[in-house]
DNA sequence: CGGTGCCTTGAGAATTGTCAACCGCTGTGG
DNA sequence: CCACAGCGGTTGACAATTCTCAAGGCACCG
């Protein structure tokens, strides 16, 4: 499906296209195609040749690295409006990770070969991409800091709060994380095991901090969870 | 000290200035000043206003984040030719970490305000910076993967090998890491304690893998160390 | 030659992982 | 429509890794 026919309101106002001319934006979209991604389906896979780069319009993806011995690590989540899979811009020929839809999603895709001409015509694109990647680098450093210095409970608290920020939806009960998340997912985000995550969250449940069930997490008392994440004890 | 007087051979051939015109390069250097940084001295400090960005000409820096409770994490090392402290390009007003010289070093510095005009005149700069930051993001993800899935000994092995790659110098004995590194430094790179690092390296010493002493590490058998880092024992 | 900084090593404790068993949804096919 | 398979979750017991606390030694600098 060509992207021209897309609702412009989806596109305008995305960070990556900030301060671009109307007709330049049209030209950018010219080269894109839109694609439906059912939940559980990969958009691209680790090690595959990086033929395309992407922009998420709707839904949620997780980006996962798999170690040689099969363990998985969730590198980050992709939210609507994010660009991803821009391996070519980083001078890589293959994707360093796999991206999988966690809910039914809609993405734009451009051929990787389009990146250089696009940037040539719209230098602001490189600047915006630099800011985006820079933000991700800082997020990554924050996670390194957490993994290095915090114990499991605080890491899990940070991970849950990050999910709340990215996909929190207010309900009567509290803040619901608006896509399916398993204990295993949280474990892969925090460098621990699903068993430990389960124990931690059971304890929180007993204290009235969260309510959770199958693939579902509701934060009942964000304030106390923040306190737990930030301070010791 | 103005940068104009610098030896051009130091500058030419740096990744960040790849495919720039001669006179553009001159203009870039116009705005820079050179600065001597004695070992142990910070170039900039975490939380300070980001007035400048930098390029390392000679020496080695470590980039450190300090947690609220005083623990330190080594985020990365800066090698000659690297740009660093480009907080403004990432739309930050302050530095997210402290950078400290580990040996006497020489750096160029530009006022942060110069970044935007420089990029406007030399769009390739943004592209090159994007690649650099992209590479760092991948390095950071690799570390996240290690911290999440590997146990201490392998993490330390990876850290030492990374140092070898960045600053290894062949000697008769083996490969010397060419700047002072303490057990504490390695601990801050791998998310463990100096005690555990000391034990691990003592064991390696006994097996003839490395020779190490005060602030000094020589890898005697890189091949076996790689094997240790990659495979599960 | 004294002091400070870096390194080593031991003993015991704490966190977290491993192994195992079991529960209860959920959704699918007969 | 019901039964059942399979996935996700929970919990206990135990083991292992790693940290904490403590003491002491050695090398380098002033």
UniProtKB/TrEMBL annotation, chains A, B:
Gene Ontology cellular component terms for the protein in this record: cytosol
Residue ranges of domain Cyclic nucleotide-binding in the record: 16-101
Keywords from the named record: DNA-binding, Transcription, Transcription regulation
Top-level taxonomic group: Bacteria
InterPro entries: cNMP-bd_dom (IPR000595), cNMP-bd_dom_sf (IPR018490), Env_Response_Regulators (IPR050397), HTH_CRP (IPR012318), RmlC-like_jellyroll (IPR014710), WH-like_DNA-bd_sf (IPR036388), WH_DNA-bd_sf (IPR036390)
Residue spans crossing the bilayer: none
Occurrences of domain HTH crp-type (ranges): 150-223
GO molecular function: DNA binding; DNA-binding transcription factor activity
Protein name (Swiss-Prot/TrEMBL): Nitric oxide-responding transcriptional regulator NnrR (Crp/Fnr family)
């Amino acid at each position: 499906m060509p992207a021209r026919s897309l609702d412009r309101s989806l596109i305008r106002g995305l960070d990556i296209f900030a301060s671009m001319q109307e007709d330049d934006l049209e030209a950018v979209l010219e080269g894109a195609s839109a694609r439906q991604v059912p939940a559980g389906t990969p958009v691209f896979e680790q090690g595959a040749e990086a033929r395309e780069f992407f922009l998420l319009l709707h839904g949620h993806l997780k980006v996962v690295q798999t170690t040689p011995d099969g363990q998985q690590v969730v590198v980050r989540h992709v939210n609507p409006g994010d660009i991803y899979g821009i391996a070519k811009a980083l001078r890589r020929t293959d994707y360093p990770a796999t991206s999988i839809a966690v809910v039914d999603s809609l993405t734009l895709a451009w051929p990787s070969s389009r990146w250089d001409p696009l940037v040539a015509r719209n230098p602001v694109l490189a600047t915006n991409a630099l800011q985006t990647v820079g933000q991700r680098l800082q997020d990554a450093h924050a996670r390194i800091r957490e993994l290095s210095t915090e114990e499991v409970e605080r890491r899990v608290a940070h991970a849950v709060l990050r999910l709340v920020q990215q996909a929190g939806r207010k309900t009567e009960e509290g803040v619901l994380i608006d896509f399916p998340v398993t204990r295993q997912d949280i474990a892969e985000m925090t460098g621990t095991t699903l068993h430990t995550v389960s124990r931690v969250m059971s304890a929180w449940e007993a204290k009235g901090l969260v309510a959770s069930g199958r693939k579902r997490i509701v934060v009942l008392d964000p304030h106390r969870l923040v306190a737990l994440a930030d301070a010791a004890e």
